[in-house]
Amino acid sequence: MGTRLPPLLLCLGTGYSQTHSVGLEALLTLLCVCLKGRCAGRVEVKLQDQWGTVCSYSWDMADAEVVCRQLGCGVALEAPQYGYFGPGSGPIWMDVVDCNGTEFALSDCTHEGPEEVYCLPSENAGVMCSGFVRLVGGNSPCSGSVEIYDRDQWKAVCHSHFGAKAAEVVCRDLQCGTALSVHGAAQLGEGASPVWDRELQCVGNESVLSSCPTQASRHQPCTHGNGTHVTCTWFRLVNGSTECEGRVEVEVLGTWGTLCASRWDLSDAHVLCRHLGCGFAESIPGGGHFGSGTGPVWRDSFHCDGTEAHLGQCPMTALGASPCSQENAAAVICSGECWAVLQSPFAPGPAHHIRRVRLADGAGRCAGRVEIYYQGRWGTVCDDAWDLADAAIVCHQLGCGGALEAAGSARFGEGSGQIWLDGVNCSGAEAALWDCPAEAWGQHNCRHKEDAGVICSEFMALRLQNSDGCSGRLQVFYNGIWGSVCSNSMTAETASLVCKQLSCGDRGYLKTTSRYAKLSRTSWLDHVECGKSNSSFWQCPSAPWHPQSCDDRREEAHITCAQVGSCPCAYREKIRAVGGKDGCSGRVEIWHRGTWGTLCDNAWDMRDAEVVCRQLGCGSAVYALGQAAAGEGTGPMWLMECRGAELSLQDCWAQPGDSGACQHKADAAVHCSGEQWGWETSLGRLSVPVVICIILGALLCLLLALLAGQVQSARVQRKGGSFPSGDGGRCLLAGLGVLVSWGTETELCAASCPMCCPTD
């Protein structure tokens, strides 16, 4: 059976893996998802010095149970199939695995392969295990009370049975960096999880907690009032004279590296100081103030507003980041005194001198309505005299580059509350918007329909350029221009993340053209490599922004999205209400061709509003409003006419709005009752005979439809014909009345979902 090998850590781009011995010929690894920990991922085996996957045919919970036990990951929770964690690489080493669940290693189970394997790389097996340890009740997965999985249940760990070395191993096991603090926690309470009756004897260098020896407790029996609380961190300060100052370092997959200072500011630094128990940030020295590091330089940028509990709660971007040297390392000098937090400019409370700025109701953090926090309240800025010089100060203050547009007339919807500033007249040299000449705070002659907004150069948007918005050329909006994304290094994981972010499904299919042509349009990015740990496209590392990242059309990325088990050409209708008090009132916007657009108020009436409210799940229509009552939108405009009985706008007549007759000052808006009736509630208001009649009527209609289909099929067969293909073969999208010819994509669509598109 072989001896147990020392743990081996591998950086594989998508996560983390741990290797154990399973025999003379095969080694098993679990490629883990960073966000879920080391105990969930695609199963891979190593044979003949090459890693390969396991086919998911007949893969079940008994097989997953063996993998979880072998890796010290508790018990199996799920046995995902068909490439749930993405396609692997290399050969498929095992097929038709059949474990009874008691085996020590996967290699002990009966299986076929590698000679006879009939499986696709996308059909690999995965596991989701319970894990051996977890932290619960904290403000993140890396902070909380320690619990250990033992005998099919989670058990609390006594503080007297737990030490600093065990805390280091817990943080390492959970991929949470290093232990920041460990202390007793009197928060178990009666009725909480049972108490573990063992004592950990960790050395401190173990990679997983299950490797630590245990023994019977030598102390008094533990009570529910003596738990253990551990806080882990991926961050540390080095080379300072105290533990509360120094160069910022981040741990990624077991490797400590320097954080680049290109976007590092006081808001980010304050969040880190508070997380480390070091008060607030006094300064962020630059120029290698605390020396140079020796490891990698992480180019990720954090965008904190200063109120977050730790940096993990801040928005983060890595896409398009420029190279960074060790001399440009982020650094901070913290106050080092907990009481000083009360004097922090970011501290919560009634301090009237605290001022902050943000952009609201935009499509990202660098575009939206300008709002200022003053005297404990958020308020807006009037657009009187509002221009690019004013907008540039806001963009610079938020770390969003330069200003592309100074928007007025409540472009991003009307705000609420106080209008703090009017007549702003910045010179361009000010550090903050409130440093610019303006009327006195709160003095104005404006209404919220005049709220100011900005669009900054760092504003980014994502789209698939095609008729349906869920397939086509991948493009990003940056520095005011839409540009392509090159496909070099791009994987199926990246394509799927794009689809998820666009609400177009959870699976993406990457395509490129085979015909060479010079690429003259802008191509912003190349070598975008998204992993399982990335929850947003903007978090994916890539080559730096460049307007000519590739010059060959064969390198442009094209993506087709689909739901698992559905056709890639399926259209996902999207509609939203913007600028109202909730999601049931505001400016009506629809998603088409990869962008949000508005509806023209020409002929807009209660019948149209009724359909919108029904589609939003917001009850009945109360008002059908026009003349940009909820603020002016952006993007294309549409004329829409409904009868009032349609289930959604895609069933209504529609056409692009005439730019002469339809302008954004004529954007339509709606106010719905907000009552969300479901099928169960609606049917509950009907009498039983009526319900029976509805059901019988539906069954009769279904029967008639089937008979009609049989008759039509028989006629076609007698004529020796078939559904038209080639130029005549089309998919009718049930969206905005658009008829799209798919050409060669019909074959892809039909292969995935024969009922979706016509075939020969």
UniProtKB/TrEMBL annotation:
Domain SRCR: 28-130, 133-233, 235-335, 357-457, 462-562, 575-673
Membrane topology: Single-pass type I membrane protein
Protein origin, superkingdom: Eukaryota
Presence of keyword Ribonucleoprotein: no
PROSITE patterns, alphabetized: SRCR_1, SRCR_2
Record has Hydrolase as a keyword: no
UniProt subcellular location: Cell membrane; Secreted
Transmembrane regions listed in the UniProt entry: 686-709
Disulfide feature: C55-C119, C68-C129, C99-C109, C158-C222, C171-C232, C202-C212, C260-C324, C273-C334, C304-C314, C382-C446, C395-C456, C426-C436, C486-C550, C530-C540, C642-C652
Keyword terms of this UniProt record: Cell membrane, Disulfide bond, Glycoprotein, Membrane, Repeat, Secreted, Signal, Transmembrane, Transmembrane helix
Recorded GO CC terms: cytoplasm; extracellular region; plasma membrane
Name of this chain's protein: SRCR domain-containing protein
Organism of derivation: Cairina moschata
